[in-house]
């Protein structure tokens, strides 16, 4: 069964706000609310893959404490900017 775009975005928004650490809940849920509806399928694929990463790693990438792996570099830069607004 194929997931509809609407359900996929709802699932990713929920996953963004129910992370392992509160900081990532706040950061990713803010980004998801602002950005997911406008993303194309490849952007959603990348964000979905990012949601499978470890919260401690994500937090270090977003805050610049660790180098972001190349597939996620642009997305993490966008998320970091959203968080700073």
TrEMBL record:
Superkingdom, natural source: Bacteria
Keyword flag Chaperone: yes
InterPro entries found in the cross-reference section: SDH, SDH_sf
Keyword Chaperone: yes
One record GO biological process: tricarboxylic acid cycle
Keywords: Chaperone
Pfam families: Sdh5
Protein name as it appears in the record: FAD assembly factor SdhE
Organism: Ruegeria marisrubri
């Amino acid at each position: 069964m194929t997931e509809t775009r609407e359900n996929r975005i709802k699932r990713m928004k929920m996953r963004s706000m129910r992370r392992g650490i509160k900081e990532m809940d706040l950061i990713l849920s803010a980004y998801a609310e602002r950005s997911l509806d406008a993303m194309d399928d490849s952007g959603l694929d990348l964000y979905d893959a990012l949601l499978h990463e470890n919260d401690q790693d994500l937090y270090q990438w977003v805050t610049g404490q660790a180098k972001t792996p190349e597939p996620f570099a642009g997305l993490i830069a966008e998320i970091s900017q959203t968080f700073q607004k």
